[in-house]
């Protein structure tokens, strides 16, 4: 029996198993039935394998005979493959002002379309300064104008909301069929 006590994971392996009685499964899936802990450890030593508790909450706990090093290697490999296949979506932010110029808004639209094309979400915010907050409808017009420019490529995920000095909404890419 190999002495492998990985301190970085919570697996119950070999001597870490403290249950009096376990349900033992062989390396090829054969059932050994209920055996006490010492018999299970002895069987693992005979087969030069490790004893891994795969279901500690079962009654009785289920343990399997296997090569623990190979098991950990394959688990890490599966985790790495899963991580590689996932897409991380970021939220990019674009800031506008109520009196933004036409060319400036077109520049911001171009940036937003690029972000959406990369698969990210875009948070569009209109910031009010000083007395501009007395006329939030001007900021709403600016935000609606921006949304109209990107409506071919984007959907509104979160409707515009006035929060303090900011009028914000979140846009996401339309799904291509």
Strand order of the largest sheet: 2-1-4-3
Number of helices: 4
Helix content: 25-40%
Mean pLDDT across every amino acid position = 85
The number of distinct β-strands equals 8
| First-last Cα distance | 56 Å
Sequence stretches where pLDDT stays below 50 over 5 or more residues:
4-8
Order of helices and strands: EEHEEHEHEHEE
Strand content: 25-35%
Rough shape? rod-shaped
Q: How would a crystallographer describe the biggest sheet? A: 4 strands, mixed
Taking Cα atoms only, what radius of gyration do you get, to the nearest Å? 30 Å
Structural class determined from secondary elements: alpha/beta
How would you describe what is shown here?
With 177 residues, the protein is an alpha/beta fold. It is built from four helices and eight strands. The protein has helices spanning 37-46, 68-85, 102-117, 136-150, and strands at 21-25, 31-36, 50-55, 62-66, 91-96, 121-127, 154-163, 166-173. A four-stranded mixed sheet has the order 2-1-4-3. Strands 5-6-8-7 form a four-stranded mixed sheet, covered by helices on one side. It is rod-shaped, with a radius of gyration of 30 Å. It starts with 20 loop residues before the first strand and ends with a strand. The model is unreliable at 4-8 (pLDDT under 50).
